[in-house]
User: Which sequence fits this backbone?
């Protein structure tokens, strides 16, 4: 099998979707004609309008990337002291807080949906806690009602890392409308991308005005700086890619779902392999195909299965191994947090993400499933 597949292109997690290439090329020509490459040009303004319309939100401010978006949002919200968040997330979530001088306080997760467990939050709140930051893992929304109830009762701010959740709904409402703000990533590996980029969505006009200042060095107008700021602007070329991706958004989501359903059939019946599902009623982007590997039932570890896939040209990835609490600088700064997240530790040793997206065909999906079947003892092809 390995020799057969080596003649083909390796299957990667996160291979970029292209959007409408013809639209993109037209927009690039427009950029050169305008000679306006950055500083809130025509395309960035158009992209912002499209974002607001799609999300049904009052403000959605494009930024250079999701990590800077998180930093700007935390600063604009005036977060201080400690913020409660899951350790089962990409390390940028914690880095954005630490960079702002805020201590990330890691909370354990629900084993069923992999999101932060609201029942664990209250015990972590101290007189230094200023906020709760939920993360919509795999695009499956957090329990926003429970988180908001805790925040209202304890007088805390709520914001969300929505890097995985563009194009998803919670209780019929688009992600982007919860908490004080939600931050998206449009990195190249996301199903909807701007090469690099992100956006901060909020229905709070006052907060939005502050964010607009902060992402442009604090300039209110030419030669007038009225707020501490940084360079968080999205350039025109990235907005062009975003507009091109809007033209293919429904098509990419449809392909993602097609691949997911094919995986569901192909992995069915393999002992110890659990495919993480999506709410069939709510709108989802179907961006991630994630399995949990139960070594006690499969007879092989997640690491062994990943290595087997790699040898057979399938670049599956373990997420978010080993967990933020076991990465630097957090394991050194806050060693007391490394022993209080049993569900997070368990999940970090079980999760494996499989390739999907517009670069992956049904034949590719069937190949990946066959590679897994051949490696799990007692599984028939």
Assistant:
């Amino acid at each position: 099998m390995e020799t057969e597949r080596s003649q083909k292109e390796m299957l990667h997690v996160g291979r970029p979707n292209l959007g409408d290439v013809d639209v993109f090329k037209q927009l690039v020509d427009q950029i050169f004609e305008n000679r306006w490459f950055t500083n809130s040009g025509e395309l960035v303004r158009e992209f912002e309008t499209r974002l607001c319309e799609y999300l049904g939100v009052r403000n959605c401010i494009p930024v250079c990337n999701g990590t800077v978006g998180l930093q700007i949002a935390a600063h604009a919200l005036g977060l201080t002291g400690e913020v409660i968040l899951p350790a089962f997330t990409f390390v940028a979530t914690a880095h954005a807080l630490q960079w702002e001088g805020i201590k990330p306080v890691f909370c354990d997760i629900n084993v069923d949906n992999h999101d932060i467990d609201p029942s664990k939050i209250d015990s972590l709140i101290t007189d230094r806690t200023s906020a709760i930051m939920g993360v919509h893992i795999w695009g499956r929304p957090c329990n926003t009602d429970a988180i908001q109830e805790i925040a209202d009762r304890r007088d805390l701010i709520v914001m969300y890392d929505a890097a995985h959740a563009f194009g998803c709904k919670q209780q019929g409402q688009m992600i982007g409308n919860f908490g004080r703000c939600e931050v998206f990533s449009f990195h190249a590996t996301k199903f909807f991308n701007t090469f690099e980029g992100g956006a901060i969505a909020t229905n709070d006009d006052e907060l939005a005005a502050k964010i607009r200042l902060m992402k442009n060095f604090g300039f209110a107008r030419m030669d007038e700086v009225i707020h501490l700021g940084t360079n968080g602007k999205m350039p025109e070329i990235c907005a062009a890619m975003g507009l091109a991706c809007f033209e293919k958004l429904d098509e990419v989501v449809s392909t993602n779902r097609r691949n997911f359903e094919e995986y569901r059939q192909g992995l069915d019946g393999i002992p110890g392999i659990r495919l993480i599902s999506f709410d069939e009623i709510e709108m989802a982007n179907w961006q991630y195909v994630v399995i949990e590997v139960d070594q006690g039932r499969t007879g092989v570890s997640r690491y062994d299965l990943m290595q087997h896939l790699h040898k057979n040209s399938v670049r599956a990835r373990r997420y978010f191994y080993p967990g933020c609490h076991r990465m630097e600088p957090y394991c050194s700064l806050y060693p007391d947090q490394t022993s209080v997240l049993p569900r997070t530790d368990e999940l970090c040793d079980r999760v494996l993400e499989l390739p999907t997206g517009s670069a992956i065909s049904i034949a590719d999906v069937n190949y990946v499933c066959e590679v897994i079947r051949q490696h799990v003892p007692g599984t028939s092809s």
